[in-house]
Design a protein that fits this description.
A 4-stranded mixed β-sheet has the order 1-2-4-3, with helices on both faces. The two termini are about 20 Å apart. With about 140 residues, the chain is of the alpha/beta class. The protein has 5 helices and 4 strands. α1 runs parallel beside α4. Its cofactor is Zn(2+). Keywords: Cytoplasm, Endonuclease, Hydrolase, Metal-binding, Nuclease, Ribosome biogenesis, rRNA processing, Zinc. Single strand-specific metallo-endoribonuclease involved in late-stage 70S ribosome quality control and in maturation of the 3' terminus of the 16S rRNA.
């Protein structure tokens, strides 16, 4: 089950059913099943507080992903996305919709086991994002 929530922002995700179908297709192609997955769209300040309190990072970010799964084949987690970062990045890199979808799939890919700290990992993550965005 995929759920969408908002905290501290005025945002309403359009085409929720299409987003759910797309995300489920990504999980299936990655040979995973979605158990309980929550997307929480929030403000920069809300996400900064999460970043500080849970990860001890004092920086703004576009996404924080928490993996709650006990089974490596089942995706369960909470993905917090800064809507403020989406809007800012959309001005630099593309449309609001494309940036939103990129960050949404980025979080899902983290829950599939992909990393993005090392350059090779980041390149692989970006390639995966581009691949799944093209399939959308």
């Amino acid at each position: 089950m995929i759920s969408f929530h908002t905290e501290d922002v005025s945002f309403k995700l359009q085409d929720k059913i299409k987003h759910k179908q797309w995300l489920q297709a990504v999980a299936k192609e990655e040979q995973k099943k979605i158990g309980e997955l929550n997307y929480v769209f929030c403000s920069d300040s809300y996400l900064l507080e999460i970043n500080q309190n849970y990860l001890q990072h004092d920086t703004y970010t576009d996404i924080v992903t928490f993996d709650n799964s006990d089974d490596p084949k089942i995706i369960e987690g909470d993905i917090f996305i800064s809507y403020d970062r989406i809007l800012e990045n959309a001005q630099k890199f593309g449309t609001e919709e494309s940036e939103l979808q990129r960050v949404m799939v980025h979080g899902l890919l983290h829950l599939c086991g992909y990393k993005d700290k090392a350059k090779a990992d980041k390149d692989q993550m970006t390639n995966k994002e581009n691949y799944y965005l093209a399939k959308r």
